[in-house]
Amino acid sequence: MSKKDEPIPDPLAGEGGGFGVFKPAPRKSAAAGKAKESGKTSSQTVSSSEQRPAAQPAGASESGGISTSVWGGGGGPSVEAVPPPVPPVQTVAPLVDDTAHFAPTSVLIGAELAIRFEYYQAKVKTKTGTEPSISAVVLEALNHCHDEDLRTYREIIQNRRKPPQAASGPFSGAAPRRRAATGGRMTVQLPIRPTKSELNLIDHFSKQVGAQSRSEFIDGVLERFLNTVANDMPRTFKPKRQMGTPR
Fold first, then answer.
1. Alpha helices, DSSP H only, in the chain?
2. What own/partner pairs with CB < 8 Å and gap ≥ 24 does 160-166 have?
3. Pairwise CA distance, residues 132 & 229, whole Å
4. How far, in Å, CA of 128 to CA of 11, rounded?
5. d(Cα 99, Cα 194) in Å, to the nearest integer?
């Protein structure tokens, strides 16, 4: 035994406070210390890796799906997909109903017939308190003279086409639409406001019965109607307004 390995007396190791023997801790080699330290570090690394959860792949959401990224990779901020814009709906204008669409127009009637027309309006106003419009009186006259086979309409137009009464002698003077008196027939413009379907029906009936125009048809129908309902017009009656004003 060398002197380095000899025990050193410890002054506090004795029972009576005497000197004892102090044994120094054995020295460790540098290689053994490094090996022990390396083993401890690897064990700590393994235990920490077991406790830590596995890292999610880049771009994966918590629900398990993968969101798209504007950066081309999976590590950028997620962007929700936007649906394509919906094209605007093209609206089509509704078709106009002929029974609700008005077609204002005018016809020519005789001046004397226009006076009786206004007298009939005043007569109805005195009786009911309400004066009928021009269109209402025209439609009333058309309904008054209408029948299923248009017989009355045809009779009206045929009577207007008859030549004047033939005179005695070789020159009878009978010719269609020849005036028997001097001066032309004075006419007044009568504005009416029928619907488009009513106006089409008026034109259809006027052609069916042989009238040359819408005015000739309305003038003949009004004459037949007013001869029935306004034939009692006094000679002193004076119209208060012109018939050319729409009402």
1. 30-51, 111-128, 134-144, 151-161, 196-208, 214-229
2. 160/216, 160/220, 161/210
3. 14
4. 149
5. 9
Residue 79 has a CB neighbour count (10 Å cut-off) of 11
Q: How far is CA 121 from CA 93, 94, 182, in A?
A: 40, 38, 31
pLDDT per residue, tens digit, the chain (247 aa), is: 555 556 655 555 555 555 545 555 666 555 555 555 555 555 555 455 455 555 555 544 454 544 454 445 555 566 677 888 887 877 766 666 677 789 999 999 999 999 999 999 999 999 999 999 999 999 999 999 999 999 999 999 998 877 656 566 676 666 655 666 665 678 899 999 999 999 999 999 999 999 999 999 999 999 999 999 998 999 889 887 654 444 4
Give the per-residue SS3 of 66-122: ECCECCCCCCCCECCCCCCCCCCCCCCCCCCCCCCCECCEEEEEEHHHHHHHHHHHH
Which amino acid is located at 20 in the chain? Answer: G
